[in-house]
Structure formats: C-alpha cells, structure tokens
Amino acid sequence: MTSTVEDARLGNVPSNTANRYDDAVAKRDPALLWRTAAEDVQGGHFDDRPLYWARLKLARQLGEREEVERRSRNFAFAGAPGDVLVTGFDPFHLDRDIGQSNPSGLAALALDGTVVGGALVRSAILPVRFCDFDQGIVEDLLTPHFQRGLALALTVSMGRDAFDLERFPGRRRSATALDNENLPGGGSATEPLVPPGIAGPEFLEFSLPAAAMVEAQGRWAVRDNRRVTTLEHGEVHADSLAALAADTAVAGSSGGFLSNEIAYRSLLLARRLGVSFPLGHLHTPAVRGHEAALELDMVRQIRRILEAALG
Fold this sequence. Notes:
Blueprint lengths: L2 H5 L7 H12 L3 H13 L6 H14 L2 H8 L10 E7 L13 H9 L3 E2 L2 E8 L3 H5 L2 H12 L1 E9 L4 E4 L43 H4 L8 E4 L1 E4 L3 E4 L11 E3 L6 H16 L5 E6 L7 H19 L1
Parallel strand pairs: 1-3, 1-4, 4-10, 5-6
Antiparallel strand pairs: 2-3, 5-10, 7-8, 7-9
Helix pairs in contact: 2-3, 2-4, 3-4, 3-5, 3-6, 4-5, 6-11, 8-10
C-alpha cells in the first residue's frame, strides 16, 4: 500500500477520531491502535478502515511490522476460560478501492469487550495475506485460547447474499483471487493446493449448534451451508461428512480462499488439541464499498446469532 492510501483516511474520518489514531501512531503504541479502533466503532463511527490505514502508517514509521501487526490486531490479549472468541478480516484491496469495508472486521471491533449471552467476547482481525497463513498465523493466534478453553469460537469473513454457517471446510486452496499483497495462493479449480502446515482429511465438519443459529432472525437469512466442490463430483450438497470421505476437496462450503482456510485450520487445530467447545465459520452478506447502516444491521444480527449459539 502506498502512503497515498495510508494518508487518504484523513478525508474519510471525523477530525476528532483521526486525531486519536494519530495520537496512537505518535505514541508508537500498536495496542493503543486496537483500543482506539474498538472504542471508535463502539462509539458510533462504524468504519473498519481507519485501523488498517493507521497500522500501515505505524509499521512504516517503526520498521517493525511483525510486532505492530500482532498487537494492533489484538493478538496479544489475555483471555479467560469461558470467553467467546470472534475473528474477522481486514478490508480487501484498498489499493484498488479505498471505499471497501469488511463487515467481519467491523464486527470484531464492535463486539470486542462486550458481553453476549453472559460471555465476554474477545476479538482479533486477521490479514488477507497467504504468506501469514503459510507461516501459521491462525495456529499461533488460536492455540493459547483453545488450550485455555472457550465458550465458543466463531471465525467470520465476508461472503455472499446472506449469513452462511459453513459446515464443511475443505483442505485445499483453489481460488485464483489475489490477496492484499496482490499475490496468488497457488491453487486453482483443476489443481487445488494443500497449504503448508495442513495435514488432515479433505473435509472437516464444524461443531456449531446450527439448528439454533439459523433461527436468529434479522434482515438476512441464516443458512446451514453444505455445498462443496470436489474433483470427483464437482459441486455437491453433502448430507454428511462421511459422504465426502472418498472425495478430493476443491472448495469447502466456505470456498477456496482464506475464509475457507481459517475455517479448516481452526477445526484441525481443535481436533489436534482435543477441545470440545462449539467452533465454526460464518460468512456475512457482502457489501460494496462502505455502508455503515447496512453493516450495523449485520453486526446486530451476528450478536443474535452468537446469543442463539450460546443459548
């Protein structure tokens, strides 16, 4: 991202809010960036992009991208047994469209530190970069919280035209879309790629209480999505995990990009660690640009979905 993109945030953010981000950058405090963004969103400025821009600016100033990334994404929070963990993603390709928001990252900021269904929600936002996933960012973030024990973990990303509970994440990358560094993931629909660090079956199944969650009423439907793509049979609606046992994954129910990969990696990690709390992935409806009122409705419905899951 160029400095033009980083500095353009000043034209999109109220001056008092921009000053708070600038103060966090001036103090060289990446954890303060996260707190500023969460307070900003929870205070009514419903925009996930200022955190992204401020992070770029601070990383450029400090020359310490790894620590800035980790702390400004809230990777270092101290959780407690019984918390709810929610993860979102950065906006996509702000170098192409400076107006593009990501409801999943916005939800992470809006929910962090709040209480839902009697449980404290703690959140983090992941980068849209294949290299980070290759280096184990998902496992590094989730392992201590999984070992401590959670009430529920929900990974969230932006998806289609409704809320989709992604029942069967797949093992492989197949999407040809570029990440935020404009790099490919290496897989395709005809040659899906097994990413580094993934040694597991072709498909896994979430442990979310889907029957309760699909009843969470709101502006959009909530679907229990079982549609996957395999090399052997193309696109299929899978009745069970056993029905997919002999097939090679092209795309899980959550697709073939990083949404699917965090869904799969989190389930695989839970299996390795032997944890039993509810865990799975949720796709939000897609937005074009930044629509604060629309995304606020999404966050409100995500809260109801979480309440239904915990209830």
